[in-house]
Amino acid sequence: MNFPYPALALSICAALLGLYFRHRRRALSSLASIRGPTSESYLLGNYRQIRQGQVGEVDFEWQDRYGAVLRFKAPFGEDRLMVCDPKAIQHIFQANFSNYTQPPQDREVLRTLLGPGIAWADADTHRRHRRVMSPAFGLGEAKSLIPLFRDTVKSLACKWKAMISGDEEDTLDQDRKPVIIDLPKWIHRASLDIIGEAAFGYDIGALDDLDSELGKAYENMTAEAFSLPTTAAVLAQGCMHLLPPVVVRWLFDHVPNNGLERLRSVKRVVDGVAKSLVTEDKGVHDLDRTRGGMGKAKGRDLLTLLVNANASHNEGSKLSREEMLAQVCTVMFAGHDTTAATLSFVLYELARDQRCQDRLREEIRGAKARGIPDLDDKNKYVKEMDNLSYLNSVIKEVLRLHPVGYHMNRQPRTDDVLPLHKPIVTSKGEQISEVLVPAGTKMIISVAGYHRNKDVWGPDAHLFRPERWLGEPCPGLQKNGGGAGLYSNLMTFSAGFRSCLGWRIAILELQTFLFHLLDDFQFSLTKDAMRLRREPCLVMAPMVEGQSDKGARLPLQVSIAPRD
Question: 425 - beta bridge partners?
Answer without folding.
Answer: 431
